[in-house]
Amino acid sequence: MTELISKVPEGPLELKWSKHKADIKVVSPANKRKMEIIVIGTGLGGASAAASLGELGYNVKVFCISDSPRRAHSIAAQGGINAAKNYQNDNDSIYRLFYDTIKGGDYRSREANVYRLAEVSNNIIDQCVAQGVPFARDYGGLLDNRSFGGAQVSRTFYARGQTGQQLLLGAYAALNRAVANGKVKSYPRHEMLDLVIINGEAKGIIARNLTNGKIERFGAHAVVLASGGYGNTYFLSTNAMNSNGSAAWQCYKKGAFFANPCFAQIHPTCIPIHGDQQSKLTLMSESLRNDGRIWVPKKLEDAKKLQEGKIKGSQIPEEDRDYYLERRYPAFGNLVPRDVASRAAKERCDAGYGVNNTGKAVFLDFKDAIKRLGKDVVDARYGNLFDMYKEITDVDPHDEPMMIYPAIHYTMGGLWVDYNLMTTIPGLYAIGEANFSDHGGNRLGASALMQGLADGYFILPYTIGDYLASKFKEPKTDTNAPEFEAAEKAVEEKIDRLMSIKGKKTVDAFHKELGHIMWEYVGMARNEAGLKKAIELIQNLKKEFWSNVYVAGETGVFNQELEKALRVADFLEIGELMARDALNRNESCGGHFREEMQTEEGETKRDDVNYMYVAAWEYKGDDKQPELHKEPLKFEFAHVATRNYKD
Ligand SMILES: Cc1cc2nc3c(=O)[nH]c(=O)nc-3n(C[C@H](O)[C@H](O)[C@H](O)COP(=O)(O)OP(=O)(O)OC[C@H]3O[C@@H](n4cnc5c(N)ncnc54)[C@H](O)[C@@H]3O)c2cc1C
Questions:
Q1: Is pLDDT of 619 > 60?
Q2: Measured in angstroms, how far is the CA atom of residue 224 from the centroid of ligand 1?
Q3: CB of 53 within 8 A of CB of 461?
Q4: In the predicted model, what is the mean pLDDT of the chain?
């Protein structure tokens, strides 16, 4: 049985990373030149890793699905990136960022990793500024900050509502420099379809060239997975349409453990669903909660009139508004963490106070902010988000409050990694949203960009050397090896099987049905009976998929239906593992809310005695149950307590 060894170094928390860096091996420049690394993904995680590894002298091959590396999903990130610079002089520190992140994740993440994340956060800002990322600045020219959920300080650096785009342009420029230097070769429109393992170590991938349908082999001394999260298992989410969990799933099936799959984040401020034909949800950034106030009517009769379209939000007088987050959580108000804000919105809507025709929306109101700051200041902070909202809903948020509702946004779970970011397969690393590492049961806003860039710029480039230091004598991986032959054959057979079904139901129809099951039973509130039902329904849907799906087009050509079908086949399996993990975790923590485990006030109730562990699942075969491994979580430095955002 594979043992979970986290490789967290001994010693005081604040010295662990420095000590580790001093202890691990390095590869000499002459030997780096002989070695090859594959990086899957060009989001903030992948682009920063590939650029850094190329700059160090390794030979890197970087892959992405989109036509250009800079169109990775990271480009959609809006609100900002955290760092403990304490520019506001509001008593921020590395320890405070660490503590907020551990607490925000409801004490279900690894202490040492989170401290390291906070520690390198400041380097990220320096690196990005040096690359020319145009962060917002204050009147004196210093970098400006705003607040995000789960924090009482302002530590979020931003570039209007386009922070991800600007950060990715910085990383993309760094990547292109390495491409121009001949150290990185970029493979856009190439989708990894399997991991190749030789003698127990990750040695390459099988990829499909999406423009011509050809199956190709690529070898390396190590493989880095930066393929993003699996939020699209729910069909409707804020993620980019191409985001998927397949690369991580292929690695899981080859022996990498999948950790905490049930930890999915539901974001409180998304534009509500408006119809059956919708295939995408739009996020309204959390940054809006800095100045926007969330409310529903106090009176049910006002809510009813809103639902019937007889009145507008602006017509409800101040004294009849219930600013329920400010009422329930006075210490943090509208800036409570996402899981808390989402559940509170659901609670109000379930009680009948929803403000749109479906009853599933609450208001996010800028009336007071515009009065206090003026329209120009509000526009300077959120202009593009206001424009986006108006374009989608035809309502101007300067005049009427926005309507928002929670939606799937991010996945905290992912491939299990040790302190070096290596999975349970030697030579296979996972970074960014693809790993499980730093966010526990709930990620704080503006911390995903921080983690992706921390992993890619400042952690992996050091830790991968420790593994590669013993490999430099190995020749280049031979892609004619039988292991490549077998993996390629298995991929081709899977594709042929899918194409030959020629059933009656579209790929999208299956995905949508899976999404309904997931949202209903593995969504914002979960319970034992519902989770058991979800597992059964998903298993049946999977059977139907493999006997009745219709995949249009041909195999050896450009075929987006086939691309989707391969991903949906995996989503069906990921969904089942998520439900299984949620069923096993009979406690509520962070975004994982088991209805059986709540306080009298409807807050999450953790069970630290039985569930203070990372649940890491091992694949045992298609028709066998996965095996659960537990990595116990020890808190030596953070005081473990019930989360409190009230006082
Ligand atoms: C609308 C929105 C706004 C957000 N705003 C913020 C914010 O303000 N602050 C914050 O901290 N976080 C934010 N997030 C979260 C954050 O954007 C993501 O968690 C982060 O960008 C993920 O980066 P990544 O590099 O791990 O993966 P991604 O950016 O998802 O990139 C994945 C890469 O992998 C490639 N890929 C995937 N599968 C394969 C395969 N099989 N073969 C080859 N390539 C593959 C893709 O093409 C892509 O290049 C936001 C998320 C959304 C949806």
A1: yes
A2: 15
A3: yes
A4: 96
Bridge partners, residue 363, by sequence: 295, 403
Q: pLDDT digits over 401-418, tens only?
A: 999 999 999 999 999 999
| Distance between Cα 500 and ligand 1 center (Å) | 33
pLDDT of residue 3: 64
Q: How far is CA 140 from CA 147, 156, 455, 560, in A?
A: 19, 18, 32, 50
Report the pLDDT averaged over residues 112-127: 98
Secondary structure in 3-state letters for 389-435? HHHHHCCCCCCCCEEEEEEEEEECCEECCCCCCECCCCCEEECHHHE
pLDDT at 165 over 80: yes
Distance 578 CA to ligand 1 centre (A): 20
Residue count of the chain: 647
- Measured over the CA atoms of residue 457, residue 463, residue 464 and residue 469, the dihedral's sign is positive
72 CA to centre of ligand 1 in angstroms: 6
Determine the 3-state secondary structure of 454 from DSSP.
helix
Say what the pTM is: 0.96
Choosing from 449, 491, 568 the residue with most ligand 1 atoms within 8 A of its CB, the one to mutate for a pocket test is: 449
For the stretch 368-381, pLDDT in tens is: 999 999 999 999 88
Whether the per-residue pLDDT at 1 is higher than 60: the answer is: no
Q: Which of 433, 436, 443, 562 to mutate to test the pocket of ligand 1 (most atoms within 8 A of CB)?
A: 433
What is the position in ligand 1's atom list of the atom closest to the CA of 82? 11
pLDDT in tens, 513-537: 999 999 999 999 999 999 999 999 9
Q: Which of 614, 586, 571, 267 is nearest to 436 (CA)?
A: 614
Active site residues per annotation: 338
Query: Ligand 1: residues whose CB is within 6 Å?
Result: 40-46, 63-66, 72-74, 76-81, 163-164, 191-192, 226-228, 238-239, 243-244, 246-247, 283, 409-410, 432-434, 446-449, 452
Instruction: State the Cα–Cα distance between residues 353 and 209, nearest whole angstrom.
Output: 50
Q: Residue 607 has what pLDDT?
A: 97
